[in-house]
Amino acid sequence: MSLPVYFAPMEGVTDAIYRRVHHAHFGGVEKYFIPFISPTQNLVLTPRELRNVSPEANTGLRAVPQVLTKNAAHFLWAAQQLADMGYEEVNLNAGCPSGTVTAKGKGAGLLLSASDLDRFLDGVFSGAQLRVSVKTRIGFSSPAEFDALLDVYARYPIHELIIHPRTREEYYAGTAHRDVYAAAQARTSLCLVYNGDLFTAEACRDIERAYPQTAALMLGRGMLANPALAETYAGGAPLTREALRAFHDDLLRAYEAAYPPRVVLGRMREVAKNIACCFEEAQKPLKAVHKAGSMAAYADAVSRLFDDYELSPAPCFCAQR
Ligand SMILES: Cc1cc2nc3c(=O)[nH]c(=O)nc-3n(C[C@H](O)[C@H](O)[C@H](O)COP(=O)(O)O)c2cc1C
After folding, report:
1. Single pTM value for the model
2. For a pocket test of ligand 1, which of 5, 11, 98, 316 has the largest count of ligand atoms closer than 8 A to its C-beta?
3. pLDDT tens-digit series, residues 123-160
4. Is 26 in the pocket of ligand 1 (CB under 6 A)?
5. Is the CB of 65 under 6 A from ligand 1?
6. Cβ neighbours around 72 below 10 Å, total
7. Is the pLDDT of residue 41 over 90?
């Protein structure tokens, strides 16, 4: 039996349209995490945030919104808005490594001080009316920070603790610290979800075997490259060129119906760069996708990719793009 799979939130990529089209084409995803909303002093959701979290934009799939803040009152305000929309779970972002975010003490900035994190979580959990899960890194500068952070997390009824076992300073570089994840499993009774570098069904099965207490897997970049990854891991058929093309074309149509060409081009270039990983030796069309300055140039580059290149026998994310 495979573990449940969660689609990681990816700001700028896995928006409501992406999630809906993915769900229409591929199975295997138990929950889709929505990229963060970031409440500010004014306590309003921006039109863009509303487009992403509105229940109408997420019908038919199980979506979990995410909040990025260091202010418990702001978190609770956002959680209430989301509860009013019908959501039963909200996720706290304690992992975003971006400098502009951490400089404000948000995202992975929450990990700079275990005592500040404790105070913040105390405020969150004393008022939260719905399940709160947390997506965390293992420290700001060093993996050694995680013991103290885990002690803090253990004091709260966190619905699920999703661990990306890298520090903020590592961003996505190097290898994930699976030893730190293993040690966390041995030390906590919290429900743990593993996230990080799972790019093939075999890699998912490895985690399942190595860390049997794991409740679920969260997949990010692996799903952007091979959108059938969760389905294949769950025992479904591997990705085919036809399935990938149908997904791509529907996504393109859905973006075209919603956005002006300039926005569509930006979105689709990102999509195509990711799926190009699934093709053998596809540097040439990939370069053409990068350079495409118009939808016509984009369509041409993508046609070349699908028509002239072989799908890799093990289609998966590749870092060197
Ligand atoms: C472009 C991009 C945007 C991301 N946006 C978010 C986000 O909004 N919230 C969040 O918690 N993580 C975000 N992440 C991190 C991913 O959710 C995930 O933790 C990370 O990619 C590691 O998982 P993976 O190795 O399976 O890709 C983002 C990552 C990328 C590459």
Report:
1. 0.98
2. 11
3. 999 999 999 999 999 999 999 999 999 999 999 999 99
4. no
5. no
6. 18
7. no
